[in-house]
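Support request, please re-run this one:
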Amino acid sequence: MTAPQACERWTERVSAYADRECGPIERVLVRMHLGQCARCREWLEQVRADEQAFRAAYLGAEDEDDLTPAVMARVTGETRAQERRAARRTVSTGRLIEVLVVFGMLAILAAILFPVFARSREKARQASCSSNLKQLALGTLSFAQDYDGRLPGTVTWRDDILPYVQNEQLFVCPVAEGGPVTYSINPLVAGRNLKDIEDREGTVLLYEVDRAGQPVFPHNDGANFAFADGHVKWLSKRQAPESLQAIGFAPPTRNYGIAEQLKLAYEASIEVIVDNLYASVLQAEAAVREYGGFLLSSQLDGRAGCASLTIKVPTAEVGNVINVLGTLGFVAHRQVTGEDLTGGYVAAQRTVERSGQRAERLEGMVQGMAEDKPRVAAEETLGAVEAEGAQAAGQAWQIDARTTLATVSATLLQGEGEPQPSGVIASFVAAARSFWLVLRGLGSVAAWVIVFLPIWGGAFALAWWALRRVTRPAE
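Re-run finished. Output below.
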């Protein structure tokens, strides 16, 4: 059933009459029209019925004459609730922005402070390294004073000055990254008399080196240097004396303008007297692996007190391996020999090319021959040419192998040294050393916690306060 509809011309007037919004004259006219139009009367009755249903549903009372005050009161209440919800959302958004700003400030602060902390930590290590070098320099000068001004030698200087410093830890730099860093005496002044050194203030006595004896710059792209007069100074890599370049054998890394690539084969031998034979063998094997080499043979004879190693290393690393092996003890013998095989390699390569070209021509001739005897002779010649090419290729490969990998023969001899402790004593010493290392590690952790606790404690407290501000309900 369709709902009744008022006349199009009288819809607005009847609606205003139903809402009590028309004037007296319009009210009379609407009543006269309602008396004549049944359609408009039905629509007016439906409007009044809907008004009664709305009054009952909204107010719960059918006898309410005016709905406007009640409706406005409810609308005002809902508006205020919406305003409170909007204010709460605004406050939450503001607090979220505050939290984001706080975390942004913390991130900026961390980005600023972390490099500062890293530099400060490196400065602390640099100061500790400087203290080590100072004591070692004083020990070296004390040794020279007791021996008529003669400085210790390159190989024995650590053992010579150890009685003066009484601490083996002084020989190791506190830098942890990039492998162990130790100290070395300047080979240009080792064994000389202090009286023969004119400029003691400008002559380097001790400096920092790696395992291979190469100068390193671990402290903010610089290193500490001890001079012959006893003072210690930090110098950048550019300020370091040019005379302290890497001392040791180093194969060439370029061909010096020669058209063909240089083919240089090297063989080296070294004989070292060590204090602990077994430990030195393990260190030598580890050093070989570190520089990309491998062992062909390793033989240790404890009763005879010697060990022999045959090593293959990349040609460019021969000098480093020889330097590392030399740091195991006293170098009794060392020899490096090289051979230029460039001419033989070029000749072999050209023989291979010519043999290949002749083989191609002979194959074409053999395919075009019909008689048996000439064909057999040509095939024999082709076989000889191919054999010649294969032989030349083998020679070129052997030259490549000899020039790519160098052979190092190392002999380690057990020195007199000090008597080794018994098994019980050695176990006790190892346990004490492990306990000391554990204590040092715990002490380092505690130091870091004490240093950074005020900073990170304040940061976490600020973050906790910001989160509580976000999660706390608005009043």
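Residues 250-420 form one domain. The chain is about 55% helix and 15% strand.
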